[in-house]
User: What shape does this take?
Amino acid sequence: MGKLQQEVGILNEGDALRALIAECEKALVAVTPENVRALLTNVAQAHRLLDGLRAAGADMRAEEARLQSVEERLVKQAQPIVAVAGGERAFAALRRAIAPDLQAPWWALEEVVAADRRRRLKQLAVGLAIAAAIGVVGFLLRDVLFPPNPVGDALFAAQAALSESDMARALQAIERGLEAAPSNPTLLVWKGVLLERQNDPAGAAALESARVILGERDFLVERAQAYLMLGESDRVIADMTRLIATEPDPAEAYFIRATAYENTNQLWQAIQDLEAAAEIAQRTGNDTLFATARVRMGVLMQSAGAIAPTATP
Assistant: This one.
């Protein structure tokens, strides 16, 4: 009888191959230190059986496909299989003891793991190299990507110093900013205002320089902003009242004066100015100022327990 034509009830080699493949498939569901040796043994035996049956002329295409699937799963699960076997050296010793003559990529799983590790290390090295290159480029182009802001830095430092009532340090910060931007009108205004507070006549010259650069309207607005930061609300009210009397659409002046009124607890006057600012802003298409003024007006009305005035500016 041929190898596949044995009597019923007697396990032939085809049945034995299918049983081995089934055991391999079952073991691959959860490879453990207890079943890893049996898994490798069954795979090696199945491979030898398949080779013998094909050499005898048997049609084993179905079994060959199943065994190939097992081998592919071995490769995919190489990392955990090698790990439960005790590591790469232990796995290599185990597979050689089971089938020393078997040479196949799916059998030398420790080499699969090593190749995967080399690939990941290479990817990591490439990633680090790219990150380093980006870092170097970013460092070289830092002044282009993140240009220095001497004016903003000077104002921030000055306001931080003023919060600690350190007038000298605030002036030093403004002077450092002017060294980098000597004609910046905002810094000139701040210098002038701070010197004024010290009764230094040089303050007038700084303010006049800013006025020439900005023009009267923008100069008064800029100076009012500085006065607000210094808590000089009366000066803000005076400057903005002057601007309101001369400007055709003084929405910003009303808004700034409202802040000064609010700071001095003159809430009704602040509400009136905010309503005027909102009306002008709506008429001139300044949606941002309109929305901001309306929100602040609502907050102040709640605080004052007032009803919105109807008077126009």
User: Anything to note?
Assistant: Residues 195 and 202 are 7 Å apart (CA to CA). The first helix runs from residue 13 to 27.
